């Protein structure tokens, strides 16, 4: 779950649901969790203390439930096919309630980032290539592009000059 996207959604509902505190408090609680992880990492700890986790999750559950009290789930009407249409706020709150473990995974496992911005940044060049250049003409070109991008990013992150890696790779292809 990307909490950066969740924060944006909550900001939208903060503006759309005039005067409601639940989106504001849910945003604040998520940011408190992010800061708790950063503080624990700065202290060299491998986890956030249990009391902080319990407090954050209890506050989160309380505000999710308050939001669902304000925007309750509509029951299925007799004879109705499919699920009943819900308010957008109800859908957001239900998703956050049902996927609570995934939303807060970053709090329990420091290898999990608060957001997926890194993943999005890594996918962006492929999307730009598809949009700006009109895509790939053949599957082989797409595969080659992805292999080169993968090598480039892996070596860049390992502190290896990606240009020298590509020079070496293409020198062997002659």
From TrEMBL:
Protein origin, superkingdom: Bacteria
Segments forming domain Transposase IS66 central: 1-143
InterPro entries noted in UniProt: Transposase-related, Transposase_IS66_central
Protein name per UniProt: Transposase
